[in-house]
Design brief:
It comes from Limulus polyphemus (Atlantic horseshoe crab). Belongs to the CDIP1/LITAF family. By secondary structure, the chain is α+β, with helices and mostly antiparallel strands. It contains 2 helices and 5 strands. A hairpin with a 6-residue loop joins strand 4 and strand 5. The longest helix is centred in the middle third of the chain and has 13 residues. The model has no long low-confidence stretch (mean pLDDT about 85). It binds zinc ion.
């Protein structure tokens, strides 16, 4: 039974964090924010770098600078809390 007049715990349904910024409620500062996305070289980028290193040695750094090879990190613009990560692997 729902009880009115009491503070209810709002269960925030986490959106799926993808490549693009998403609107979510920050669990840290409880503001409704649009996440800031930051590209970070993750496992996928390093794995690609390793493969390219074996095949075309001088080009191994390319996956480390291409955004589509990187993980996407979502952070809250108001408190900078990390809200989620979209990993390539
Ligand atoms: Zn926040």
């Amino acid at each position: 039974m729902a009880q009115y007049g009491q503070q209810t715990v709002v269960v925030v349904q986490q959106p799926s964090f993808g490549e693009a910024p998403v609107q979510t409620t920050c669990p840290n500062c409880h503001n409704t924010v649009v996440t800031t996305v930051d590209k970070k070289a993750g496992l996928f980028a390093y794995l690609m770098a390793l493969i390219i290193c074996l095949l075309f040695c001088p080009c191994f750094w390319i996956p480390l600078v291409i955004d589509s090879c990187k993980d996407t990190e979502h952070t809250c613009p108001s408190c900078n809390a990390q809200l989620g990560t979209n990993k390539r692997l």
